[in-house]
Amino acid sequence: MAKEKSVFFCKECGYESSKWMGQCPGCRAWNTFAEEKVAVKKKQNVKSFEKIEAKKITEVLETQDERILTHIDELDRVLGGGIVKGSLVLVGGDPGIGKSTLLLQMCSHLVKDNRKLLYVSGEESLSQIMMRGKRLGAYDERLMLLCDNDLDNIEEKVEAYASEVVIIDSIQTMISSDIDNAPGSVTQVREVTSRLLLLAKRRNTAVFIVGHVTKEGTVAGPRTLEHMVDSVLYFEGDESSGFRVLRAVKNRFGSTNEIGVFNMTGEGLEEVKNPSELFLSGRPVDVPGSVVIATVEGSRSVLVELQALVADSSFNMPRRTAVGVDYNRVNLLIAVLEKRAGIFLSNCDCYVNIAGGLRVNDPSADLGIVMAIAGSYKNRSLPSGMAILGEIGLAGEIRGISSVGRRVNEALKMGFNSVVLPSSNMNSKELKNIKGIELIPVSNINEALKLL
Ligand code: TYD
Ligand code: MG
Fold first, then answer.
1. Which residue's alpha carbon is at the smallest distance from atom 21 of ligand 1?
2. Phi, psi (degrees; rounded to nearest 5) at 310
């Protein structure tokens, strides 16, 4: 009998190897390789395709992507202006974060526009979805529910109902009968996704795939299929707080970096039209270590509160924690503070946190982080109506930032009366017409620290 062959897959990034490895060469993660049987296709679908000729670029006709509006503004914006027909969208996130809720709510809006929808669930029962749908306003006869995980049947039903939008909840539960691997394994997840991709393109149907992100366990992470789909949206947020952020990390039909902000309530997800208000609510006034920064997420600026706490350490190795900002960036900024401003923190524990559960990757937060740490260390606070902007270089210089006008305008709109910003940004055209807010230019870290 022929020996069964197997391959090893990285559960994080899908890297394939013929032997087991401790560290994945693809994503550098440790201990992520899992063994799987080599998939043998039972059926061979040999199709005869028409030969396609190449075309001169000047002969290609212009087409507009046809969009279906969901009428959930936060979602439409993240999608790049609505759902594109024939697109395959992956919605990833931790289990229980609200992916099913968001998509069912999207259905409730789409049925009002007379769209034909198919919601396929391999996780919940028909009555569970029906009850949730009733609460979310998706109780309508144009919304078809299917509780199945067999892809052959799903494809058949999509044809039969001529569905315009299909939701697959979740990819980890679906099975393609062509191959024997267990649902949720890398091979199975990839096969199902590639068949859904064909389905979407052939029928011009928009397909939403739900994927749970798991660090451990046997379930293949959706990261393995990011490159196969048109758009990847991640739904994130603190499970304890109600805030949820939908973020586009890949979008073939629009810009990435866009975020949509939601609030999870008893009646489902509520759109947050003014995120700054939400992230600043409950902010302590005149407390050392609390500063307000302005990040740019896609097309708009959001004000968030950044907090730092510096306390005497009782350990040989002082503790450093960063939530919502990059840990290594915080360490670098602490080193700059020590070397350029003479604030020594080697005997202090340092905690940095973005309030509200937003993740900030914007270098313009540097000065805010430094001001918060120094403020907490010196026990001095900043005026409550002041926002802090600026990137910091290793020499302690404050470097210019992008989209300065948008950030200052957001601060003005939120009733702030002063903004600290890099002096190199002062000549920016974007700032010419902004009135009613004091601009405080700083060129190095010591100048900025005098404001405390
Ligand atoms: P769900 O959409 O099932 O998460 P996922 O599909 O990402 O696993 O959301 C589950 C959570 O949302 C659950 O903890 C309850 C909460 N929730 C509300 O708070 N309000 C609501 O109206 C709904 C439908 C869910
Ligand atoms: Mg779910």
1. 268
2. -115, 125
CA distances from 37 to 8, 18, 179, 182, 219 (A): 9, 11, 10, 10, 15
Q: Which of 405, 403, 391, 373 is nearest to 443 (CA)?
A: 391
- pLDDT at position 341 is 94
Burial 333-357 (b: 16+ CB within 10 A, else e): bbebbeebbebebeebbbbbbbbbb
pLDDT for the residue numbered 295: 93
Please tell me the distance from the alpha carbon of residue 15 to that of residue 62, in angstroms, as a whole number.
37
Q: What rounded mean pLDDT belongs to the chain?
A: 88
268 CA to centre of ligand 1 in angstroms: 7
Q: How far is the CA of 234 from the centre of ligand 2 (A)?
A: 14
Q: Please state, in angstroms and as integers, the Cα–Cα distance from residue 24 to each residue in 6, 28, 221, 347, following that order.
A: 17, 5, 15, 37
Mean pLDDT of 367-393: 95
pLDDT, tens digit, for every residue of 1-54?
A: 555 678 888 877 778 888 899 998 888 888 888 887 776 655 555 555 567 788
The mean pLDDT value for 160-177 works out to 92
| 122: nearest Cα among 153, 143, 159, 83 | 153
Tell me the CA–centroid distance for residue 301 and ligand 2, in Å: 31
Kindly state the tokens that stand for 451.
């404001």
Confidence of residue 142 (pLDDT cuts 50, 70, 90): confident
232 three-state secondary structure: strand
* Cis bond before residue 364 (omega within 30° of 0): no
The CA–CA distances, whole Å, from 402 to 255, 295, 407 equal 17, 10, 9
Rg, C-alpha atoms of the chain? 25
- Work out whether strand 398-399 and strand 391-392 pair parallel, antiparallel, or are unpaired: antiparallel
- Which two structure tokens, joined as six digits, stand for 386? 């002041």
106 lines ligand 1 (CB under 6 A): no
Q: Which two three-digit tokens encode residue 265?
A: 């309530």
Question: Closest Cα partner for 417 from 385, 383, 451, 372?
Answer: 385
Nearest 5°: CA angle at 214, between 212 and 220? 80
Count CA atoms within 13 Å of residue 230 on its CB side: 22
- Tell me the per-residue pLDDT of 80-118, one tens digit each, with 9 for 90 and over: 999 999 999 999 888 888 999 999 999 999 999 999 999
Average confidence (pLDDT) over 264-271 = 90
